[in-house]
Amino acid sequence: xxxxxxxxxxxxxxxxxxxxxxxxxxxLGTDDFHSLISNTCGGYSFYKDAKLRRIxxxxxxxxxxxxxxxxxxxxxxxxxxxxxYLPTKTDLDSYECRHGLSYTSFHSSKxxxxxxxxxxxxxxxxxxxxxxSLTNTSAKSKTFTFYAAVEFCLYNAVDDANNYQxxxxxxxxxxxxxxxxxxxxxxxxxxxxxxxYGSVAHDGFDTDRNVFLGLENGWDAPEAVTKxxxxxxxxxxxxxMACHRYDITLKPGETKNLIFVLGYVENNxxxxxxxxxxxxxxxxxxxxxxxxxxxxxxxxxxxxxxxWDALLDKFVVKTGDEKFDRMANIWNQYQCMVTYMMxxxxxxxxxGTGRGMGxxxxxxxxxxxxxxxxDKAKERIIDIASIQFEDGSTYHxxxxxxxKGNADIGSGFNDDPLWLVGATMAxxxxxxxxxxxxxxxxxxxVKGSEKPLYxxxxxxxxxxxxxxxxxxxxxxxxxxWNDCLNLNCFSTKDGESFQTVENNDTHVAESVFxxxxxxxxxxxFVELANYIGKKEDAKLIEKEVKAIEEATVKSGFDYDGGxxxxxxxxxxxxxxxxxxxxxxxxxxxxxxxxxxxxxKDKGLGKKAIDASFKYLLDDWGCELLYPPYSTYHVELGExxxxxxxxxxxxxxxxxxxPWLTMACCVEKEPERxxxxxxxxxxxYIEDKSxxxxxxxxxxxxxxxxxxxxxxxxxxxxWLTGSATxxxxxxxEGIMGIRPQLTGLEIDPCLPKEMTDxxxxxxxxxxxxxxxxxNKPGNKATIIVNGKEQASKIVTLVKGIKDxxxxxxxx
Length: 810
Ligand code: BGC
Ligand code: NOJ
Hints:
Shape: globular
Number of helices: 19
Structural class: alpha+beta
Bound molecules: beta-D-glucopyranose, 1-deoxynojirimycin
Helix content: 25-40%
Largest sheet: 10 strands, antiparallel
Number of strands: 46
Strand order of the largest sheet: 1-2-9-10-11-12-19-16-15-14
C-alpha cells in the first residue's frame, strides 16, 4: 500500500494523507541552520549543532506523536484546523504535503478556505522561512482568526530537558508588533538570540506557553486559539514561545499572503545591546527585511532550486528504469547530502542530544557527496583527521559546534582510522587534488601538533599493523564497523552502555572485517604513495597488505561453510563460522573481503557471494547474520541484546547490502547485483509502505528480518550510511563510473534489461556524456571522442572539457 507518489519532474514526494504509518520527514537547510519537518508540520530547528544550539523544542517519546513544530491554526467560526493537520487533528477537505529538495510545502483546505504553506531555509541566511497563502474559495466573504506559533528551546537541548530548577526561571523576550525575540540567557553569556517574525503586523500575540495553552490544554486546543483571542502574554519564567494572531477577512476569491521567519542571530560581545537590556536587532531586522515580501521569498526559493539543479546535474543517468533513475538522480543523492550535514545527530530516531559527528560515519558519508561538493569534503576530511591521536587511534565522534573530540564516547574502535584512508582516497580520486595531503593537520586538535594529512593516513595504517592478534589479523578493539559486536566488553551490569563501558581489550579478539578494510584501503594507499613518489612507504604497506591478506586466507575463511569468518572473540573462538551454533555467517566480511579481492585466485569471493545469497537473503535484502542470536552472549555484547531479526541481530542492514552488491560487480554477477540492489532501494518498495513504514523516498538503517515479529518493518530512516553506500554501489558498481587517480574509469555491470543507458557526469570540471549499449552479442569496445581505446580509464586531455564516450558491452 502507498500513501503518496513520486513527482519526478518536480523532484518531490507527494504525501496524500496525514495518516502515514510514522511521521514522514524532510530536512531544510544546506549550511548552518537546519530544520526537521514532518508531513504534519512537526519538527524543530537548530543552528549548527542540534545539541548545543537548539532553537525550537521537540518532545521525544511523546503522545500523541509529533506535536512539537511550527503550527499554523485557523479558527473559522469555531472550526479549528491546522494547515498540516496536527495538532488539532481536524479532518480536512483536502490535504497534500510535498517534500522537495530542502523545502516542504503543504496544501490543504477546509470549509471554503484554501491554505498553502511553503517552508524552507534560504541558502544565505540562518532562518527558516514559512510562506502562507490563504484563499477564500467560497462564494461568501470569510472572517477568521489565524495563528502562527512556535515553542522555543533554551539552546542547550540536554540542559533544557533536565535542569528545570534553573531553566524555569530564565525566560526573557522582547516583542514588537511583527516579532518576538527570544533572548533567554542573552543578558549574561550568550551572544545569540532567536526570533519569530511575521511580515504583517499582528493583531495580538502570546509568548508565555502556560497562558497561551491554558491550564489543562495541549497544543491541540490552545485556549487562545479556541477562544479566538490573544492574551498578549509577556513571558518572564517557565516556557517561552512565540505566537502571532491575525484577524482576517477575505472576499470571495481573495488571497492573503503572510510570511514568517524563525531566525537566529549572533552578535559581537561589544555590540550586544542597543540600549540597556534592549538587544541589538540590526542583523535580525536586515534578515527580516529580505523575506518581508513575496518577491524576496520567491527569489530565495528560486536560488535554492537552482542550487539543487546545479548539484544534481553533476550525475544524471537514464536507464529506462524509472525507479532506478529516480533513486540515482534525485533521492539517493539528496539523502547523501543530508547525511553529510547531519551525520547521525538529528533525526526522528536520533534525538540530536547524543551523538555529534561520527568519525567512521562521516568518513563513509563523504563517499556519497564528494562528487557534489568537493570543497566541503576537503574541509570535512581535515576536521575529522584533527581528532585523531598520534598513535593513529582516534576519538570516535566530535561536536560540530567546536569540532573537538567527544570524551564521553572516547576511542578504541579499531576500524575508525582506516576509514580516513578510504575517505581521503575518494576525495583525491574525484578531484585529482593531492595537495590535500600536505595540509598541516593537528592531533587531538592540539595547536603545534600539526603534521601533513599524509602522515595521518600513514599512521592510520600503522595503527592496524601495530595492533594485530594471534592469527595475524587486526585486533577489533572496542568494536569495528559493527558497533554491536563488542568482543572485549563483557558487560553484565544492567543499563550499562555497550558503547562506553570499560574496554577490556586483552589483545586477542580479532576482526576479519578490518582485515578486509586494510587490504582494500591499504592497496589504495599503495597506489597513491607510488603515484606521488613515496616509494618506500608504498613498499612497506604493500608488504603488510600481503601479510594480512595471507592471514585472512589462512584463518579468516571457513572452508567448510564456504564463506569468510567474521571475527575471533577474546577466547580466540570463531565468530560467524559454521562451527558456531548461532550467528554462523555474517554479511560484512563477505562484501568487504570480496571487494578487497582477498583470495580471488582461489575463488573465495564467488563462494562468499553464493553463501550470502543462500543463507542471508530475504524479501528485503541480505540479513546481517544468520541465524540470529536467541540468547545474550556476554562475550559478544550488544549484538545479542536485540531480539532476533532486528538491528544488528539479523535485520537487513541497508548499509552493508551495497558492499555485497559491489562484490557482485567485482565478481561480474550483474543480475545478482541488481537483484540485491532492488530489494531495499526505497523507490522499488514504495508500494509496501504499510509494512515498511518509514519514508519511501529514503533509506532506513534496517529492515526487520525473517526472525522478527515485525518482518519487513524499517527503522532509523534518513541518517544512515545506507545512503552513501547505496549510491556508491549504484554509481561505481552497477553504472561502473569510478574515479581513479589517473582519470575516470567506465566499467558498467548492467543487468540485461538495461540495454541502453546514458549518463552525464561532471568530473574534475569536465563533462562526460556516456552512452552504454548492453546487448547480447556485442563486442566490448570503448570509444572516446571518436577514438577507440584499450583502457577503461578515460584520462583527461588538457584543453578538452567535453568527453563523449560510447561503451559497447560484450
Ligand atoms: C546501535 C548501533 C549504533 C550504536 C552507536 C547501537 O545501539 O545498535 O547501530 O551504531 O548504538 O550509537
Ligand atoms: C550505526 C552507526 O552509526 C555506525 O557507525 C555503525 O557502523 C552501524 N550502526 C553498525 O553498528
